[in-house]
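Researcher: Structure prediction, please.
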Amino acid sequence: VQTMPGVEKIAWQEIQQRFPQATLGEYLFVKDQNGIVLFDDDVSFKDLLTLRTAEDVFIRAAHIPRLTYDYGDLRQIERLIQEGDEFGKITHILTSYLKLTRRPTFRIVARKTGDHRYTRAHLEKALELGIQRRFGKGWRQVEENADFEVWGNILGPVFLCGIRLSDPTMRHRH
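Model: Predicted structure follows.
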């Protein structure tokens, strides 16, 4: 889940309270923009969307815990999206969950913090190529209202890719 900065531990407390079988992975941070709580559990998508401390909810689709900060990271990310079991499994589950009967659409959101030899735009291109090579013309990239929002985050030494389950209304709840 993604939270406002500083709310990560409160979000984890809510997750533990609501889903006692959940196990904490780690806390990650996007500068002063967001906190991220990584956890494992078999909670339904619908239940995850009821978390009150989360601004957004994602399902992890790919993860690299230690990047090199060099261009080889981009090739590894592209291959992980193109060939990775986790990305394939998650997109298959979500396609069934959404009951899509047409060619899925996707949108990429790329974020990067840290002093890597490559830019955020390079990350975005690696994600795009990985998706295109995995699905060919089966998926179509769009600017808005996508079936799948694929968020690729490079947070210092960590790459985290998630597919967004929530919509923009979640972060504007009262």
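Model: Strands lie at 2-3, 23-30, 34-40, 58-64, 105-113, 140-141, 148-155, 158-164.
Researcher: Thanks, that helps.
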